[in-house]
Amino acid sequence: MNTRFEEFFIDKYPKVKSFALRILLYEEDAEDAAQDIFMKLLELPEIWSENEPEDKLLFVIVRNHLFNIIKRKVVERKYQQSLDLKNFGIDDIDLENNLHAKEQKS
């Protein structure tokens, strides 16, 4: 691994993870996000290869990555809720059919 990137990682990782934790609220999510961000940054040497990389650009990248995570979670949650509603509707119909069938047997 590039020594400059290692220095950059050691210096910036705690800040990135702390920022992610404040946004995502869960330690594991923050660690995953920080690791994903640094994997992307590894491919962007223009950000970390300078002697004094600019934090502003780094945190724009971090912020955008975190917003994408949140957007994805919102979409996943909406999809899960729509599935739950569909399943709830199917269960209601089955319950009505079962009750109707029992009433007819009586």
UniProtKB/TrEMBL annotation:
GO terms for biological process: DNA-templated transcription initiation. Residues 13-70 form the RNA polymerase sigma-70 region domain. This is RNA polymerase sigma-70 region 2 domain-containing protein. It comes from the Bacteria. One of its GO terms (molecular function) is DNA-binding transcription factor activity. SUPFAM superfamilies: Sigma2 domain of RNA polymerase sigma factors. Signal peptide: none annotated. It comes from Dysgonomonas mossii DSM 22836. It holds the Pfam family Sigma70_r2.
